[in-house]
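Re: the request from the purification team.
They wanted to know what the chain is likely to look like in 3D before they choose a buffer screen. I agreed to run a prediction and write the result into the notebook, where they can find it.
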Amino acid sequence: MTDSERSRPPTSVLLPTVRWTEACSEVAAQLGADDELLVICDTDDDPVAERRSEGGGSDDDGRSEDLLDRVRVVLAGEPEGCSGKANAIAVGMEAAERDRIVWTDDDFRHPPGWLAGLNADYERQGPTTEVPVFVGTDPLGRFFEPAYVIGGTLPVSRGGIAWGGGVVFERGDLRDGEATFLRDLRRTVSDDGTLAEHLDVSAADRTRTVAAGGSPRESLERFVRFLQITRRHTPLATAFNVALSVGLASLCLLAPVAGAALVTALSGATYARFGVRRATFLLAGPSVIASPVFLAYALTRQTFVWGGRRYRWRAMFDVDVESV
């Protein structure tokens, strides 16, 4: 352990998941002597819940008994009036015993130094979020990649928008207090969108590659969810993006060569800005042409599916939940 790790405040890491994944082991291996990892699932039926009797892990994970004492599995229960993710984070915040909090997810790699890097970011600039790059794992997911890099990665990198996969803050940083924040979490869908409403956050100078999709249906549901989140939390930006999408699609249809060259160059420049070495930037042209159709579909959808539940999100704090 370095001197900086010894001097920093202890940290509670919240990781919602239904099963013990490689990400859990990666984060657990980075805990300091006074840190804790809370693996948060829904109910006893989730596979990771079996580890509750083992202190959050087992010796075959290559961890010492001392480390097992700092890994806890927390049951959040079924959500009522909010998303499963928001419910898990709210329960995790209440169960966490440290003042400094880190949120993360189980769908990307946490390399050695990941936790130390976030803590160093906090010491330098306060609440900090890492920057996600969503990489499609199915044809439709890859088709959406340019839109995710331009409409997701780029805005987060500019600061002010939190990404729940990698964000560090302290309870006292929440503008309206923790109780108000938790109340809002328990009646909405987006955990990180709600956090951004209560927290001033800066962006780290690095990205994390996140798998997006799995099947075309999952990619479509993710697209709908992402747009619904931005619609609720940043309505003016969403209106601007819709207008821009229609304008670029019109340009590509009316002047195909110039339009395709422009959007491909913009996409390629954005990929290069974040070190994304994927040929999917070449899909920017067809993606832009199709985007008004997908946007219209996403904006008119009354429900979307996420994590085995269907959500009807009528207003920011009006959510119906049902199993699928």
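For the purification team: The chain is about 45% helix and 20% strand.
Please add any questions underneath this entry.
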